[in-house]
Design brief:
alpha+beta, Alpha-Beta Plaits, 2 domains, globular
Length: 185
């Protein structure tokens, strides 16, 4: 059965706190198996016979709206996709080593040409961007709190929803997924 990761946007912000057990119950209610969470920032691992990730995203969003009472944009990736994202080199190693943060933004669909141009216009001397498929990468030489860039600013420029994760989180998640896949082989 295929394994997936759902990256949930803003699940525990704005004074809202969702317990991971409650989140798991929402996914189990959808008929998913092997449901687990990875750190309390809206990363849910699950298995489903479904192959259409866009449909999975809609099902999860509908269930979370029902269970939580507010919209939660959801971005689903296969285990292989998460592992590929974790190993992708978006920027030269010397730049990554000197930067303070490398983040990955998840999208529901690849960016349009206009969205790519809008993202590039946001680049500054301390913030650079790269796009690959349904992900965008943000390299910053400033603390996120010091940058004028935020996920909200990105969403406004791109006119689409996105969720952001630190590359360290993605690398740790991919290692866990790779170990789990290896134990099932």
């Amino acid at each position: 059965m295929p394994c997936y990761v759902a990256f949930l946007r803003a699940i525990n912000v704005g004074g809202r706190v969702v317990k991971m057990e409650a989140l798991k119950k929402s996914f189990v209610h959808l008929g998913f198996s092997d449901v687990d969470t990875f750190i309390a920032s809206g990363n849910v691992l699950f298995s489903s016979r479904a192959k259409d990730t866009a449909r999975l995203e809609r099902q999860i969003e509908t269930q979370l709206l029902k269970d939580l009472g507010y919209e939660v944009s959801t971005f689903v990736r296969t285990v292989d996709e998460v592992i590929q994202v974790s190993g992708y080199t978006a920027f030269p190693a010397r730049d990554v080593e000197s930067a303070l943060a490398l983040n990955v933004g998840f999208l529901a669909a690849p960016m349009t040409r206009d969205a790519r141009a809008a993202l590039e216009r946001l680049a500054t001397g301390i913030d650079r961007f790269h796009v690959r498929g349904r992900e965008w990468y943000w390299l910053s030489w400033a603390k996120q709190s010091e940058s004028k860039i935020s996920n909200g600013a990105i969403e406004k420029a791109l006119k689409v929803r996105s969720t952001l994760r630190g590359m360290n989180t993605i690398v740790r998640l991919a290692a866990r997924l790779d170990r789990a896949a290896g134990s099932k082989r």
